[in-house]
Design a protein that fits this description.
Distance between the termini: 56 Å
Helix content: over 70%
Number of strands: 0
Order of helices and strands: HHHHHHHH
Radius of gyration: 25 Å
Structural class: mainly alpha
Largest sheet: none
Number of helices: 8
Strand content: under 5%
Length: 212
């Protein structure tokens, strides 16, 4: 069980890194190709003896740049995937200081109950959104609409947006893990206790420093 969780954690982190790297590389290539052809045109004007060769290279780069209209759509799709993969990853690392800060405002005796209620609400939200988005994906699958600017690669819209129900399903599992840990007494709130403590101390200091 622990081995499977470790594999899942590593796969999640690798996917986040891959999407970030992919977005960066695609955007970088698009910007380079959209600016590089002008350099060769300028060299062709400055070097008459190499004018034809420089113009040929510039035309080739310009053609590639014009054909890379798909890069914007691909970057948007990867960013969408990054968001919904990041939802589950954020729950795992405890990146929800706002919710945990709210829980810590209650008395210690009630914090566990409030945390369980907060996680239960999050679980219900994940179920609702996963079900609703799955219906949306099913409709797109039935229609078979191609993804804009990505149709040249045979990519359909449902293939791009299927990460939405998957992301909420993964987030549900992560919140379920938190729920179980709170019941077992292994966790008091939703995580990030050190940052929450710092935030609480800052709030208390601000209140103490406010003149009456």
């Amino acid at each position: 069980m622990h081995a499977a969780v470790r594999v899942w954690n590593h796969a999640e982190e690798m996917l986040v890194a891959f999407l970030l790297a992919g977005m960066t590389l695609v955007t970088f290539a698009y910007v380079i190709f959209n600016n590089l052809y002008g350099v060769f045109y300028s060299l062709g004007d400055s070097l008459p003896f190499a004018n034809e060769a420089m113009l040929g290279i510039g035309d080739s780069i310009l053609y590639v740049a014009q054909e890379m209209t798909w890069s914007v759509a691909l970057t948007k799709a990867m960013f969408g995937w990054l968001i919904f993969v990041g939802l589950a990853w954020g729950v795992r690392i405890g990146a929800h200081i706002g919710v945990d800060l709210l829980v810590r405002q209650f008395k210690p005796a009630n914090q566990r109950r409030v945390a369980l209620l907060a996680v239960a609400i999050c679980l219900g939200y994940c179920v609702l959104m996963a079900y609703s988005s799955e219906q949306w994906v099913a409709t797109l699958y039935a229609v078979g609409t191609s993804a804009e600017d990505l149709d040249r690669f045979g990519i359909k819209q449902w293939q791009v947006v299927m990460i939405v129900p998957i992301g909420f399903a993964l987030m549900f599992v992560r919140f379920l893990q938190v729920f179980i840990r709170i019941i077992q007494g292994k966790q008091q709130g939703l995580g990030l206790h050190s940052e929450v403590d710092d935030a609480v101390k800052l709030a208390e200091n601000d209140q103490q420093g406010t003149p009456k």
